[in-house]
Amino acid sequence: MIEAVVTLALVTVVLSAIGYLVAANSRGVRILEQHVALMETARLVATSIPRNGETLPDDLTGEMSGDRWQIRLSPFFDGIPSVPDSRFMPQRIELRVRSPSGAILTLETVRLQNVSGH
Predict the structure, then answer these.
(1) How far apart are CA 62 and CA 98, in angstroms?
(2) Contact 95/46 with Cβ under 8 angstroms?
(3) Distance CA 99, CA 39 (A)
(4) Are 112 and 88 in contact (CB under 8 A)?
(5) Who is most buried in 65, 69, 84, 99, counting CB within 10 A?
(6) In which band, very low, low, confident or very high, does the pLDDT at 83 lie, cut at 50, 70 and 90?
(7) 32-41, 50-59, 108-117: the lowest-pLDDT one
(8) How far apart are CA 106 and CA 115, in angstroms?
């Protein structure tokens, strides 16, 4: 009788550990899927940014695939004057994507902005 109770307790502990591992794995999979979806939205938004030096507003927002995104543009060298004979100035681009669940992905990059209007 005691052996049966000990065996039952041992089986209960093993099944609880397996249940915990399965739950942790499914949480990890959900987080990974959410990250992939945010990265895909960020990739699609980033590829839609004009690359020909076209002037953009300082703040752009939108929605894609249920995710909200925002692009903020600012000078890369804030407070430092541009090189006098240069047609280009570095510009910081910050892209934030927020999923409906509240997860946020932020990416930053730099591009050269045509300042002479050519």
Answers:
(1) 11
(2) yes
(3) 11
(4) yes
(5) 69
(6) low
(7) 50-59
(8) 26
